[in-house]
Amino acid sequence: MTYLQFLNELKQNAEKPFASFQRKLIPTEQKILGVRTPILRALAKRYQANFEEIYAFPDEYYEVTFIKLTLVSALPYNEFLRYVESCVSLMDNWATCDSFKAKCIRKHRAEFLPMLEKLFSNGQEFYQRYVLVVLLSEYVEEKYLNILKNYIQRANTNVYYVHMAVAWLTAELLIKQYDYSVTLLREKVLDAKTHNKAIQKAIESYRLTKEQKDFLRSLKIKEKNKVEV
Q1: In angstroms, rounded to a whole number, what is the distance separating the alpha carbons of residues 196 and 192?
Q2: 4: Cα within 13 Å, side-chain hemisphere
Q3: pTM for this prediction
Q4: Range list of H helices, 90-191
Q5: Are residues 118 and 86 in contact, defined by beta-carbon separation less than 8 angstroms?
Q6: Kind and range of the H or E element at 16?
Q7: Could you read off the pLDDT of 78-116 as tens digits, one per residue?
C-alpha cells in the first residue's frame, strides 16, 4: 500500500464540516481531513499488518499521525518502547497527545517509569503533557503518590497544556486520594492559577461529596490582580 492509496481512503471518509469543527478545536500545524475518530480506529485495526509501511508515511495530516499512534499503542510492551519517543515527538496538540494510550503500560508500570522521566526531562510542552496524562491514567494510587507529587512540582505550568494537565491530574488525585491531595493543596505546591484550576475540576466531579467540595472551595488561593498599563 502506498501513501497516496492510504490518503485516498482517508479522504473518502472525510467530512468537510467536521474538518472545520476540528480545526477550531485542535490547534495543530497539520492539515485536517475531518475523519471521525471511530473510523480512524477502525482503519488502524484493519491495517495492523501494514504497521511498518504506515509508520514511515509523512505526518502531513492529523489523521495519519493519529493512526500511526493508534497502531503503536496496540503493540506489545517491548515493541511499544521502541517507538514511544518518536511518537511523542510528533505531538503538537492535546488531541493527539491525550488519545495515545497504550494498554501495555498497565502491566509494566514500574518498568516504564524511567521512560516517563526521560520524556518529561525533555521539557517541551507535549512531552510533559504526555507524561502527566499517562500518570493520570495509570498511576493514581497510593504506591505512586510521591512520584506524582514530584512530577506535579516540577511541571512547567507556565505553558497552557501542561498547566491544564497538572490541574487535571491533581483533580483526579483529589477524587481518588482525597486526604493526601488536600495536604498537597495546603502545602501550596502549585502556583495559584493551577491550584485553583485543580480545585475547580475536582468540584465539577460527581465523585466528591458536597462537604468535600465546600471544603475545597475554602482552599482556593486569591490570585493577584494583573495591573493594567
Answers
A1: 6
A2: 0
A3: 0.93
A4: 94-99, 109-121, 125-138, 145-154, 160-176, 178-187
A5: no
A6: helix 16-25
A7: 999 999 999 999 999 999 999 999 999 999 999 999 999
